[in-house]
Amino acid sequence: MTLPVRRRPGSLLERAMPFGWGEPVAAQFEDLFERMNRLMEGAASVPAAMAWAPAADMRETDDSYVIEAELPGIKRDDIDLEMSERELRITGEFKEREREGVLRHSTRRSGRFEYQALLPADVKSEDVSATLCDGLLTVTVPKAQATKPRHIEITES
Length: 157
Fold this sequence. Notes:
Layout: H1 12-16, H2 23-44, E1 56-60, E2 64-70, E3 79-84, E4 87-94, E5 111-118, E6 129-133, E7 136-142
Antiparallel strand pairs: 1-2, 2-7, 3-4, 4-5, 6-7
């Protein structure tokens, strides 16, 4: 993770004085900057056990929502798909394969993954279907049938 770099010598408080900022305002900015640095340093040390999210697209058709998630190299049995009311949740684990020799460099993700999507309309959660082909998980969530407007005749009494 890249952290901001100070390019000019001195603290923010020293640099703010030529601009006419008073000491209290500049000191608040200095404090804020230091807290942001601590926050960014803490984010850089996130435990490796935390889940990662796969790349995914969601598109809407006339009668359904289609979610396509990239899960290359992950077996069907290692993927769990849950649907509740309007929320879709894809979880699982990409297990490291055994290798010979010493691994010198790796950019592939492994371990637990999780993808969540909140669908914008009422859906038929009991009719959800999913397929896994060539590392692409395709989940189709049918929309609930909305009541169609109909013309009502007004009669005289």
